[in-house]
């Protein structure tokens, strides 16, 4: 694919009849206006007064398929001491949601600050600058403001959706780095009980025996540390994005991490059955794990399975082990940042592109609108703001061995309970770094290169100088009924089929638009025209309504119990 010209000149603009996104047809609308009085007197589109003598660096850590199964999010089984330590010095958002639970659409959405209906990427097969608009990205914005921007690992999804270049040269100052060993991820490198090599879902390995004697996330950590060492003496601030592969499938990780999770300690999902009231269009048949050799050997029925109970436990064991392996890589990276004396001058943001179902609702993947696939970890460390500056010689991020039985779970430093969206990453990082916060997008905004569709989260960082003052409430919240998180997911048909998980644009016939509030999750599945990118809300195929307080796992669909699917007034935010 040819790269677009400078600043989008010559790019085709969306045609007539494409101006209205699906969200504009779903009440309640909460997309307009400026953020409430924000951090340090910052106004929405004005430059923030600097709190630091020099510009702050940014380290953005993006994890693949990580749900909030972490100690700092209250999961008592998971060993994640290094991420928990980061959380103890950060502002942690308890209820952050992705806008589409699949890799490429989610990453393009939060890296541009636009919803999937604006980027027009619902699959993996188009580049937004060509097919939607020449939208700026987070790293591009920092690059244009004097930062050296660098990409390590999986930041953008590779391939067509980032122009086979990770959006270079727009977003990055130097060529993005991809670990050489990632080409083996889906090959026959998993030794099975028969002693032969297989392309399995469950793939604990002896690292010394795998090709190149290493794994992609280990290589990414090493490269990120090398770049930090190089930037230590630079006169320019840096923006370093590090994308980790695990716990994305296959679960290929050092086998010693299995020891942290004995199978006898692994429980099943609390709701492992397909809910009786679930519309078929809402279900995904998790085709990608069915293609793995060890899952194929189970001879599962299509589309609902189920997976045998003993294998369910093994999947959950390997997901948790992959999370602990990931944690060690994050720990080594943050320890190096500390050793290089960069922790005092670097904002750290940590998040995931979406969650992953581990048997909930009888599903084993992302590809849905449920909380378990759309809710993600999100935390920000801001030196001197979310934690005091360390004393000379003191380390904030000493490496913690997850195998150390004496290490204790650290509580998050501060927590925000409000519902927020990954779209907010762009304006929030800009504001924290003291850059102009991009203005709110008009509607339509296909012609606008720099604007944001997400809320600015800077108001949550407006606490007193004594960031650990016991008299201050560590939980922050606004009026909860003013807060909404939106997500969406496409389907090719009303019933599960082979391409229900990842339909190509041309095959999309139905779009599920979902609203998450403090009280409920409400989803309508409506007709969708992929040629005009238009949803028809007068043609509702199915609906879902889950009441969060009484049904936190979202197993009891109340949609048909309300008149025509209309929400009771008591549930309207």
Automatic annotation (TrEMBL):
It is found in: Lysosome. GO terms for cellular component: lysosomal lumen. The gene is IDS. Its cofactor is Ca(2+). Lysosomal enzyme involved in the degradation pathway of dermatan sulfate and heparan sulfate. It is an enzyme of class 3 (hydrolase). This is Iduronate 2-sulfatase. GO terms for biological process: glycosaminoglycan catabolic process. The keyword Signal applies. The keyword Metal-binding applies. Keywords: Calcium, Disulfide bond, Glycoprotein, Hydrolase, Lysosome, Metal-binding, Signal, Zymogen. Coiled coil: none annotated. InterPro entries: Alkaline_phosphatase_core_sf (IPR017850), IDS (IPR035874), Sulfatase_CS (IPR024607), Sulfatase_N (IPR000917). Residues 57-434 form the Sulfatase N-terminal domain.
């Amino acid at each position: 694919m040819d790269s677009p010209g400078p600043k989008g000149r010559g790019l085709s603009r969306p045609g007539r009849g494409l101006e209205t996104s699906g969200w504009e047809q779903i009440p309640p609308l909460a997309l307009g206006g400026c953020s409430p009085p924000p951090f340090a007197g910052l106004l929405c589109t004005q430059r923030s007064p600097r709190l630091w003598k020099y510009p702050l660096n940014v380290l953005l850590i993006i994890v693949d398929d990580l749900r909030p199964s972490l100690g700092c999010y209250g999961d008592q089984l998971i060993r994640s001491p290094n991420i928990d330590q980061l959380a103890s010095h950060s502002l942690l958002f308890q209820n952050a949601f992705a806008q589409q639970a699949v890799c490429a659409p989610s990453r393009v959405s939060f890296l541009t600050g636009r919803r999937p209906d604006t980027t027009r990427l619902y699959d993996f097969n188009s580049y937004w600058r060509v097919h939607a608009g020449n939208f700026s990205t987070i790293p591009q914005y920092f690059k244009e403001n004097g930062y050296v921007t660098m990409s390590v690992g999986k930041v953008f999804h590779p391939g067509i959706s980032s122009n086979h270049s990770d959006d270079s040269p727009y977003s990055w100052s130097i060529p993005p780095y991809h670990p050489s060993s990632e080409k083996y991820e889906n090959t026959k490198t998993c030794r099975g009980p028969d002693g032969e090599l297989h392309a399995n879902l469950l793939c604990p390995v002896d690292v010394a025996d795998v090709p190149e004697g290493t794994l992609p996330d280990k290589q990414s950590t090493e490269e990120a540390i090398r770049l930090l060492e190089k930037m230590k003496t630079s006169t320019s601030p840096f923006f370093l994005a590090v994308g980790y592969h695990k716990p994305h499938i296959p679960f290929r990780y050092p086998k010693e991490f299995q020891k942290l999770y004995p199978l006898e300690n692994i429980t099943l999902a609390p709701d492992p059955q397909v809910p009786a009231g679930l519309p078929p269009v809402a279900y995904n048949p998790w085709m990608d794990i069915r293609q793995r050799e060890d899952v194929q050997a189970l001879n599962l029925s299509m589309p609902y399975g189920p997976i045998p109970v003993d294998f369910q436990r093994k999947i959950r064991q390997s997901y948790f082990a992959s999370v602990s392996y990931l944690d060690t890589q994050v720990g080594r990276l943050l320890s190096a940042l500390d050793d290089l004396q960069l922790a005092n001058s670097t904002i750290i943001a940590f998040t995931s592109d979406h969650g992953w179902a581990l048997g909930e609702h009888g599903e084993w993947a992302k590809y849905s609108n449920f909380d378990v696939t759309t809710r993600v970890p999100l935390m920000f460390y801001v030196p001197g703001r979310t934690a005091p500056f360390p004393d000379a010689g003191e380390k904030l991020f000493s490496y913690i061995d997850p195998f150390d039985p004496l290490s204790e779970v650290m509580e998050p430093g501060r927590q925000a309970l409000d519902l927020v969206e990954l779209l907010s990453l762009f304006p929030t990082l800009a504001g924290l770094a003291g850059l102009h916060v991009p203005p709110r997008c008009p509607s339509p905004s296909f012609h606008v290169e720099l604007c944001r569709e997400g809320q600015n989260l800077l108001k949550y960082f407006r606490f007193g100088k004594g960031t650990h003052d016991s008299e201050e409430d560590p939980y922050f919240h606004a009026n909860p009924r003013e807060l909404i998180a939106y997500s969406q997911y496409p389907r090719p048909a009303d019933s599960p089929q082979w391409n229900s998980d990842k339909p190509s644009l041309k095959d999309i016939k139905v779009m599920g638009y979902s609203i998450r509030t403090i009280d409920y999750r409400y989803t309508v599945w409506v007709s969708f025209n992929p040629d005009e990118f238009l949803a028809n809300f007068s043609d509702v195929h199915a609906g879902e309504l889950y009441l969060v307080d009484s049904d936190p796992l979202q197993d009891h669909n109340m949609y048909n119990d309300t008149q025509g699917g209309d929400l009771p007034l008591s549930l309207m935010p």
